[in-house]
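From: lab user (bench 3)
To: helpdesk
Subject: output format question, protein + beta-D-galactopyranose

Hello, I'm new to running complex predictions and I'm not sure whether the block I got back is the full result or only part of it. Here's what I submitted:
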Amino acid sequence: MKAPFKFKTRMLTTVLSSALVSSALLLAPAAKAAESVEVLHWWTSGGEGAALGVLKKDLEAKGVTWKDMPVAGGAGDAAMTVLRGRVTAGNPPTSAQLLGFDLRDWQKQGVLANLNDIAAKEGWDKVIPKALQEFSKYEGNWTAVPVNVHTTNWVWINKAALDKAGGKVPTDWNGFVAMLEAFKKNGITPFAQGGQNWQEATVFEAIVLSLGTDFYKSAMIDQDPKALNSAKMVTAFDRLRVLRGYTDANFSNRDWNLATAMVIKGEAGAQMMGDWAKGEFLRANMVPGKDFVCIRFPGTQGAVTFNADQFAMFKVGDSMRNAQNLMAIAVEDPKFQSAFNVVKGSVPARTDVSDKDFDDCGKKGMKDLAEASKKGKMFGSMAHGYAAPAAVKGAVFDVVDRFFNSKDMKSSDAAAELAKAVAAAKS
Ligand code: GAL
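Helpdesk reply: Thanks, we reran it on our side. This is the complete output you should expect:
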């Protein structure tokens, strides 16, 4: 006992009671947590919070204290507003959760720290998929660490509702509509939806993908006006209206996790949402295959739209570099990648993590992603910031939202407006 505390006992005068000495000894381990990170993020739902807990615990075990900066609001729009305010005021957080093109904006502004040293030491170039590196790096420099890969073209179905509806998993559009129709006959809301622009866009982009991978690429990635204002786009809007017809009356402004809760409780049959929805099912102790079913949106089998949450490190001074490095290394640790993504619903952001701890939906997610990537069928999600910069994304959201909330806007008008709005956003 004596030797390690010589320094302290020399400093403390003998007037200190032995009780005080022992409380000083009790504080000693806390010195380990000298580093701290303030992290801005939008993970406030039950499943997201559980996943975040895995990260917090991991960092705290490594002596890094977590200062939480949550900004509620699915897909992070509200978080981006708060982040802009913080950076403009000269008070950026240590790190922030960012998606593709938003990350690019901050990189261009030169406010992010350079992580090349640890990237080289940890060998990230070899294990992080190129599609993610394209955003993690700017002009060859690492500025952010991807924590996961989500894919957005999923349907989450309540198993009991599906069984009542005949038990057949749909594989094409007609089958999908037949399933929704059967839910309706059974007296439950067929389609759980939240009327927020990004949720509508998540449904819309899956419909676009189901009309062909070339079509998704030319419309959403290349934003070719001919694809945006095309017969196929008219079909996409027609289908969006069909799905709108299967929502309940209270969909307006409903949060995505509340729509998921409707499926969990069996009040609704299905939801189209990225695989963060799985985190909510797991939190409700539901088991894939038994209590709920995950399928790719019919017509999109073999292809994926993806987004990856990345933690960007801001330039907050040399004194914070060690904490930032510790966080970056922890996030890319293969064991952590498995533990975190098992809870979050996403899949690892490294190619060398085993799927053995993942449930059936997670295993399918990993397999689908690997196959789609190999076949050139892995595309950035428009709804989640990996297809286009914020201005273009906003233009798409605006038209899709107006269409979704209107009963009489014509699909052909929506397609024409989409091409016009995107062109204006790009100019
Ligand atoms: C996505 C994000 C996910 C998820 C979702 C809902 O954009 O990548 O991690 O949490 O928003 O908030």
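A quick orientation on your result: The pocket of beta-D-galactopyranose is lined by residues 42-43, 48, 74-76, 99, 150, 256, 276, 307, 309, 384 (CB under 6 Å). Let us know if anything else is unclear.
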